[in-house]
User: Fold MotA/TolQ/ExbB proton channel domain-containing protein from Pseudoduganella albidiflava.
Amino acid sequence: MEQLREGGAAILVTLALSILFVAVTAERLVHFRARAILPAGLVAQARPLWAARNHAALANLLEQEDSTLARIIAFMSRYRDQPHAFVSGGAGDIASMELRHHQQKFYALAIIATVAPIVGLLGTVVGMIEAFHVIAYSEGMGNPALLASGISKALVNTAAGLAVALPALGMHHFFKNRMMFFSLALEKQVNALLNEWFVPVPVQPHLQVLNAH
Assistant:
């Protein structure tokens, strides 16, 4: 704790960044899960209702599910009489908008990973300036204890900045990879439903037998 006090103003900024890092990470771990994007079992419940044309029951089911997939299926049900291209475009817009919303929430981790080492570097520079200032206004290097405060501030800020930046960068990539996984899984599931529910089955033309005269 004493070493943190020696860090000066820069260490306070780094501490604030660390608190923000913990808050963003905890919020994303709680809310950015598979259940929020494509909950298991939803399609299995929706398929028989769609096949039975029971869209009222399907709407009630989807209202109970707070997920991206539920909102996409609700859009499909609402515009079930529209052509495949229209429904596909709308479903893609919903998925893209919601995934971008999730991405914006964990983008703060990338900012923390960038800013924290810069703040640490600033504290390091300030500490070294103080150390050289002591050298300039004292009798040479005769008393190393006079340099301790400036050098300590420099090293503490460097270590603190890296200690915050490295886990923030790691968690940012973790959530980015999770988003890519959810995006691909959601695209696969939605395309399967579109092809099942909206692509018309080709109708075989009636054979006409022409009597030869």
Residues 2-197 form one domain. Residues 5 and 11 are 8 Å apart (CA to CA). The two ends are 107 Å apart (CA to CA). Confidence is low (pLDDT under 50) at residues 209-213.
